[in-house]
Amino acid sequence: MQTTQHGEYRPVPYRPRRLPVEESARTSSWLRDRMAQRRTVREFSSTPLDERLVTNAISVAATAPSGAHQQPWTFVLVTDPGVRARIREAAEAEERKSYAGRLGEEWLAALGPLGTDEHKPHLTDAPCLIVVFAQRYFLDERTGDKHKHYYVDESVGIAVGMLLTALHLAGLAALVHTPSPMRFLGDVLGRPRNEKAFAVIPVGYPADDAMVPDLVRKPLDEVLVRV
Q: Is 149 exposed, middle or buried (0-12, 13-18, 19+ CB in 10 A)?
């Protein structure tokens, strides 16, 4: 449990091994090619996972940089079928409202090429869910004192990106699902009042007959600007 919020500056040496240029280039090229294969999957196999794959990925995510090193995240690993069913039921109730008009025509049109709708079977088909919560402030459970966290969304967003990378490199598929609103997740999972749901991430292996949209990523020259 986190019990303190501030401390003194205590520097320690940092001397990582500097890789030879060619080794660095090979590693970065390998990572580029592996990550180019990552796809968002909505059709999952029910094959059980070795939990180490998931907890190792969460450990990687927890190394993410964060504002003032406050690490304002909680990762809830949900494997219980009953709890996953409750999450799906509540998420689909919200999604029905969204697809019935709450999202607006422009947003619905943007979602068209993804083939999504209010049905979210991935929430129960995948063998586990990682529900990511952002800690809006530090809450000392002993005293009830609150202290502000800084750059929460940026910090948690970076951690989720690292989580997706680690899951993919472990051979797993994932989907970032953000039903709106997501308040029900805190209720279902019994999270404290300082936490706000950030994303639900189903994790597993793709179904044998899984399909994904035929999408093309922007080439490097469209996203890279040299100055």
A: buried
123 within domain boundaries: yes
Contact 200, 129 (CB under 8 A): yes
- Whether 144 is in a domain gets the answer yes
Token couple for 67 = 């504002």
Domain interval for residue 67: 44-207
Band of residue 6 on the pLDDT scale cut at 50, 70, 90: low
Whether residue 36 is contained in a domain is answered as no
DSSP secondary structure letters along 94-116: HHHHIIIIIT-HHHHHHHGGGT-
Lowest mean pLDDT among 61-65, 160-164, 214-218: 214-218
C-beta separation of 58 from 133 below 8 A: no
CA-to-CA distance for 164 and 202, rounded, in angstroms?
11
Residue 162 half-sphere exposure, CB side, CA atoms within 13 Å?
19
Q: Is 91 helix (H, G, I), strand (E, B) or coil?
A: helix
* Residue 35: inside a domain: no
Query: Could you tell me the two tokens for 147?
Result: 């202290």
